[in-house]
């Protein structure tokens, strides 16, 4: 990928500072990455697998925290969201307060250098964070490898990793996560047709940690 400002912390700090201001002004929580459909897809999978409601869930790059709010509304009780942007965490805390979901935990954490207390999760979810890391102008390849190492350290053996990506194909993601993970299934995403070929603009996969 070409390096992009979308891969920098400065970009996300500025973006979430703007969203935080907008929320304080008019109560709008901001953009939902990949839309509401992507949250529904994740929740449907968890329900279909009968994942216990007290399973520990980590949202990697939580942004405005809306995914965890939806999981809480679906009955999940052990929810943690992390983001390296303090403005994102401030925003997610304000959204949590507005929604009355005081049990959701939010922390400023850089997933590429996770603190010791980030460990033992049953489920990790990523909607676009691996994408953003892939665009970092400074050693994106090394950062992707560190992401996989971090994931291995925070997710329990046999734990599930659900990733939604608009930059990577299924085959590419299988390659990126080949060490320590096995693919369980590909979740259906919207298809498009271009020039007679059918493809997906978004890839959603479920891995299990070996």
Q: Can you walk me through this structure?
A:
It is a single chain. With 210 residues, this protein is of the alpha/beta class. 39% of the residues lie in helices and 26% in strands. The protein contains seven helices and nine strands. It has helices at 9-26, 35-48, 66-73, 86-99, 129-134, 140-154, 170-176, and strands at residues 56-60, 78-83, 105-108, 121-127, 155-165, 181-187, 191-194, 197-200, 203-209. The strands form two sheets. The protein has a seven-stranded mixed beta sheet, with helices on both faces. It has a two-stranded antiparallel sheet with strand order 7-8. Strand 7 (191-194) and strand 8 (197-200) form a beta hairpin. Helix 1 packs parallel to helix 4.
The end-to-end distance, rounded to whole angstroms, is 29 Å
CATH evolutionary superfamily: Vaccinia Virus protein VP39
Q: Portion of residues in helices?
A: 25-40%
Mass-distribution shape: globular
Beta strand %: 25-35%
Rounded mean pLDDT score: 89
| Secondary-structure element string | HHEHEHEEHHEHEEEE
> How many runs of DSSP E, i.e. beta strands?
9
Low-pLDDT regions:
none
Helix-strand category:
alpha/beta
Instruction: Assign the CATH topology.
Output: Rossmann fold
How big is the Rg?
16 Å
Tell me the CATH architecture.
3-Layer(aba) Sandwich
Largest sheet: 7 strands, mixed
The count of domains is 1
Number of helices: 7
Widest beta sheet: strand line-up: 3-2-1-4-5-9-6
CATH domain class name? Alpha Beta
Describe how the helices and strands are arranged.
Blueprint: H1 9-26, H2 35-48, E1 56-60, H3 66-73, E2 78-83, H4 86-99, E3 105-108, E4 121-127, H5 129-134, H6 140-154, E5 155-165, H7 170-176, E6 181-187, E7 191-194, E8 197-200, E9 203-209
Parallel strand pairs: 1-2, 1-4, 2-3, 4-5
Antiparallel strand pairs: 5-9, 6-9, 7-8
Catalytic activity: L-lysyl-[protein] + 3 S-adenosyl-L-methionine = N(6),N(6),N(6)-trimethyl-L-lysyl-[protein] + 3 S-adenosyl-L-homocysteine + 3 H(+)
GO cellular component, one term: cytoplasm
Pfam family, one: Methyltransf_31
């Amino acid at each position: 990928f070409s390096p992009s400002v979308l891969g920098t912390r400065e970009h996300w700090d500025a973006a979430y500072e703007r969203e935080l201001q907008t929320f304080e002004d008019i109560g709008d929580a901001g953009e939902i990455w990949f839309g509401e459909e992507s949250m529904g897809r994740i929740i449907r999978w968890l329900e279909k697998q009968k994942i216990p409601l007290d399973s520990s869930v980590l949202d990697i790059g939580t942004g405005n925290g809306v995914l965890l709010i939806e999981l809480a509304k679906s009955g999940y009780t052990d929810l943690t969201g992390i983001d390296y942007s303090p403005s994102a965490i401030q925003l997610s805390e304000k959204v949590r307060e507005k929604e009355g979901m005081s049990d959701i935990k939010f922390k400023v954490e850089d997933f590429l250098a996770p603190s010791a207390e980030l460990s033992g999760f049953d489920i990790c979810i990523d909607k676009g964070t691996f994408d953003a890391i892939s665009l970092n102008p400074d050693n994106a390849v090394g950062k992707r490898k560190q992401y996989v190492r971090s994931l291995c350290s925070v997710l329990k053996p046999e734990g599930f990793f659900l990733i939604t990506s608009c930059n990577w194909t299924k085959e590419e993601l299988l390659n990126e996560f080949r060490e320590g993970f096995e693919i369980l299934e590909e979740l259906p995403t919207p298809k498009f047709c271009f020039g007679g070929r059918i493809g997906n603009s978004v890839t959603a996969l479920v891995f299990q940690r070996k």
